[in-house]
Structures are given as structure tokens and as C-alpha cells.
Amino acid sequence: MKIREQMNIVVVGHVDHGKSTVIGRLLADTGSLPSGKLEQVKVSCERNARPFEYAFLLDALKDEQAQGITIDTARCFFKTKKRDYIIIDAPGHVEFLKNMVSGAARAEAALLVIDAHEGIRENSRRHGYLIAMLGIPQVVVLVNKMDLVKFDQKVFESIATDYGSFLKQLGVSAKEFIPISARDGDNLAFASDKMKWYDGKTVLDHVDAFVKQQDDDAKPFRMPVQDVYKFTEKDDERRIITGTIETGTVAVGDDVTFLPSYKKSKISTIEGFNSPEVKTIGKGHATGFTLANELYLPRGEIMCKSKERHPMVGSRFRANIFWMARAPMIKNKKYKLKIASARVTVRLAEVLSCIDATDLSSIQGRQQIDRHDVAECILETTRAIAFDTIDDIQFTGRFVIVDNYDIAGGGIITHAINENDNAINRQINKRELHWDTGIVTPADRQSVFGHKAKFIVITGAEQSIALAKHLESSLVKSAKNAYFIGPSSLADGLDSDVVNETDNREEMMRRLGELARILTDAGLLFITALGDADTYDLQLLAGLTSPNEFIHVSIGGHEDGASANKIIISEKLNLSAMVVAIIGRLSQQEILLDYAI
Ligand code: GTP
Ligand code: MG
């Protein structure tokens, strides 16, 4: 049996402009009401001597639903030949926004109702704004109560022109206007004979013409890495990378890239849990993979296919946030951002615009985001994350913000933005501006020590620490000014105040980088080993060491991108051979001057 397609539509509009009547009509005219419901409501109206309203149908349905199951938002359903619809009547904006940003409800299209007689009201504009903020891609504007303006084409056109240019300003492009009389059913399910001048689609035709977001199966492959397990058998060095596939499909033999680290490999096997072996797997499956080479992968990476469009990687992006916590979101405070399986520290960098969700009034010049505000803002994470924009892939375009273990807000990513202007670069610029150098120049030190200063970071296999120590020893034996420190040496000293914090990595990296800036300034060959460092750790460390120099020694070279500052050495060599290889390269690059091995 073919599963029928489903689409979520939200109906918004100023008070009394006719939202509920439109919905009631759609339910009635498509035959989606429970049998006898329409008659029952009509009879009850007659009995109470009040005129029948299509809007009453919703109340009648609500009562019925409330007796059975609990209803989260005002939702109802109707069917056309083409597909099933879930209509979200959005009377309580707060509830609706909460559901939208948390992902509980997702409107794929919006119907915006404007009363032809009353014209565009403040809420009509706010709702347009809301639709733009939430990234709802398709909108149809229903100019309702045309009977009250004698079905006058001019009234319709003036509203369409005014409101059309307003929506355009907001960047909402997919918009159409339909003149209707919801009460009488004109242009709802059937073309009206009272507005012959209108030859466009009816509301129902339009709703059926809404484009379903590209099916997730057809989208690029995305799997947030949840965990990495080692096989338990002795001598079995393989690891299983696990997670749930959110979009796309993947097959054994596919080249894959992990972001934000840019580590690459190839899929060797797909490991089902108690299920027969498969060669290809797709969206919705919780699964595991073994790879052709072993990677150190922190949780939070997104696995994607090397040949497909990648998620964006960056630490600054534009987002629309809905804030729910009592305490406002303020600038320069650290929050935790959860996106897919990643968790990073995030700061509010800028508030671009803000509306109060309780009355949808817009607030100018806001520097913080208060409870129940919807804000368009710029967020900055301390570490780069991999993400997609909301209009591309929902799952990786949506996040929540945690403050003190509570979910404080949620949001969607609308754009990536310029990388260079981020907090860490600003801090480095400030530091360099105030750096007070002595009389001794780097060249002076170089000629005395017989080498340049460098921060050398060794990554890769488990022997990276041992290699770093051997390198130090070899250099010192030939009278070079080398010094090794391992991350564990800092834990109870330099990092003692942050070591027990969750997600302390960024801060520990920052301190290590600052230490490197100082020790390279002292002319040292400063060496450390970070088995699991990724591209972003390394970029951060290189940035913090600057203007002094940084070099990355990779055992095996499994991270992406060879660069001028990278030495790759084979993992097959023994330690002394590795040391010789590194020293050879350092001499070649004239970092070590007159070195005799
Ligand atoms: P709220 O939920 O209170 O914000 O209102 P709403 O937007 O759901 O409006 P509703 O559908 O309840 O309609 C408000 C009033 O407008 C009702 O009295 C309807 O009968 C009336 N109305 C709706 N559509 C039409 C129409 O096409 N013509 C006329 N003349 N009245 C209409
Ligand atoms: Mg209503």
C-alpha cells in the first residue's frame, strides 16, 4: 500500500479576519468531517437560535478530540485526492512558535488571511514577519470577505499590491493572492461565479500545488555521529561509528567525510544491530559503520558522503531564535548549543531584529532576547560546527540552546556568515595590539639557538605522545632548545579550574595556544601531542600561536588537507625512524639550522 503524502499548513491572520471560517470550509467542502458533524452543528445552532458559522465546526471537533486524546495545538485534518493535510490554527502564538522551533510541529506552507473590508492590519504584517522568521517557504494570501466589498477587483488588487511589496521586503518570494468569501465558499473549493475577473486557482487547488519539501531520501547523506565503539575481541582494532541516518543513503565502498574535522575514510561495512548484513542503508535507520582506516572521531561530527554537497562548517551564523527561559539571553554569556549530536559553547553576538511573540509587536534596538521573543540574531560558537540552513536540511538546520542544563531556547539557522570575524580572532588581534616585545628579536634568538621557534603539534596514532618525547630528547641532545608538554600535565595546573567542567575542550585548547604563543616567543621548539585533534583544534592553535609559527606533524595523515605547515609521516615507521623523518623535514625547511643527525 502506498503511504499517502502529508503536509502541514499553518493558518494565520488578524483577529476575526476569518481563519477559522476558512478552515471550517476546507474541512466541509472536502468531505473531511466526521459524518453527520455538519448537520449536528447546524441543528445545535438552530436550537440555540444563533446563525451557523463554519468556525463552530472547529470548536465542535476540538471538544470531541479533547474527550479522547489530548491535543497539543489546535490541529485538524483534511484530505484531497492528492494528499492529507494537517492544519495548524495558530491562535496561541507562543505555543505555535515553541512547537515550530523545537521541531514538534513544522509548517511547510502558510495561508495568511486578510479581511478585504478591514484591509491590512498590524497583525497581518506581523504574521508575514513571523512566516519569514520561521523560514516557511510558501505562502498564499487569502483576501477574505470579498462579499463585504461587493467583490470589487480594485479592493483585491490594492491589497495584493501593498501586501505583496511588504512580503517582498521580507524576502518571502513564493506568494500568491486569492480573493475569497470563506463564509459562502467562493474560491475555496470551487471557483466563484461572482468574481469572474479572477482566473487564478482556488484555495484548494493552490494548497494541492504547494511543493512538498524535497524528500529526505533524495537529500545529501547526513549522519550525526553518536558514539564510536571498539570491537571487544582481542586484537580487533576496528571501531564502529554509530548514529541515526537523518537524510540520504550510503553504501559500502562510499567515500565519506566527517565534519567539522574534515577527516576522511571509506565505508568498509554496514553493521546492523542483530540484523542481516546490508550493502546500502538510508534515512531513518540507526546503524553502525566500520571504516577502511581508523579515525579518532569525537562525538558530534556529521558523517557525509565525500562526493555529495557537504554541510557548512563555521562558527558564525545567522539564526532565528525563540527564547523560552525566564532569564533573557544576553550577549557575552556562555550558553550551550546542541545541534544534531554536537554540543558547543555559543554566544549571542548580535541581535538584528526582535519581536515579542505574545503580541507580535516588534522591538527596536534590543540588545538581549527576552522570554517569548523571536529574534533574528548572529550566534557565534567557540568551535566550528557543521550545519545546514533550515531551507536545505531541517535536522541539521535546527538547534536548541541550553542554559544551566535547561532548554532555554530553540532556533533555526538561516545563513552562514563570514568566518574571519569571530571571537577568537578578535581576541588574538587585541592581544597582539598590546603585546609588549623586549629588545631581543626573533632573529637574535634564532642565531643564538641555531633554530627557529616553532610550536610543533603531533597528531595521529596512539604513539603520538611517545614520539613527541623522543623528538624532544633528540633535539635537546643536539643542544636545541626544545620542550615537550603533554595535555595531562596541564590538567591539575594551568587547566585546573576548567578541567572538570563539561565541554572544557575549547578553553583548554585556548590556554594551550596562549602558552604556545609565549614559549615560541621565548624561542623554543615547543612540542605537544594531541592524539585526537581535529582540523579546528589545529586551526585554533595555529591562530593563537601567531604571529609565531606552528607546524603540524601527522602520523598517518588521515586528517584532511595537506598544507605548508603540515608534515605527514608514515605510521609504519618505528619511533626513531619517525624522529629522523621529522628532523629531516625541519632541516629542509630551515627550521633547524646546521643540524647534524
Ligand atoms: P479569531 O480566531 O477570533 O482570530 O477569528 P478568525 O480569524 O478565526 O475569524 P472567524 O473565522 O471566526 O470569522 C470571524 C467572523 O467573520 C465570523 O463572524 C465569520 O462569520 C465572519 N466571516 C468569515 N468569513 C467571512 C466572509 O467571507 N464574509 C463575511 N461577510 N463574513 C465572514
Ligand atoms: Mg479562529
Keywords:
597 residues; alpha/beta; six-stranded mixed beta sheet; six-stranded antiparallel beta barrel; 14 helices; 26 strands; 27% helix; 29% strand; binds guanosine-5'-triphosphate; binds magnesium ion
Describe what is shown at a glance.
With about 600 residues, this protein is α/β, with parallel strands linked by helices. The chain contains 14 helices and 26 strands.
Q: Can you put this structure into words, describing what you see?
A:
The protein has 597 residues and is α/β, with parallel strands linked by helices. It has 14 helices and 26 strands. The strands form five sheets. It has a six-stranded mixed β-sheet, sandwiched between helices. Strand 4, helix 5 and strand 5 form a beta-alpha-beta unit. Helix 10 crosses helix 14 and helix 12 packs parallel to helix 13. The longest helix is centred in the N-terminal third of the chain and has 17 residues. The N and C termini lie far apart (74 Å). About 1% of the residues have low confidence. Guanosine-5'-triphosphate (GTP) binds next to helix 1.
Which helices and strands occur, and which strands form pairs?
Elements: E1 6-13, H1 19-29, H2 37-47, H3 55-67, E2 75-79, E3 84-89, H4 93-102, E4 109-115, H5 122-133, E5 138-144, H6 153-169, E6 174-179, H7 203-209, E7 223-230, E8 239-244, E9 249-251, E10 255-259, E11 263-271, E12 280-282, E13 286-291, E14 302-305, E15 312-323, E16 335-339, E17 342-356, E18 362-363, E19 373-387, E20 398-403, E21 406-416, H8 423-434, H9 442-449, E22 454-459, H10 464-477, E23 482-484, H11 487-491, H12 505-521, E24 525-529, H13 535-545, E25 550-555, E26 566-569, H14 575-588
Parallel strand pairs: 1-3, 1-4, 4-5, 5-6, 22-24, 22-25, 23-24, 25-26
Antiparallel strand pairs: 2-3, 7-8, 7-14, 8-13, 9-12, 10-11, 10-14, 11-13, 15-19, 15-21, 16-17, 16-20, 17-18, 17-19, 20-21
Helix pairs in contact: 1-3, 10-14, 12-13
Bound molecules: guanosine-5'-triphosphate (GTP) and magnesium ion.
Guanosine-5'-triphosphate is lined by residues 13, 15-21, 53, 55, 91, 144-145, 147-148, 181-183.
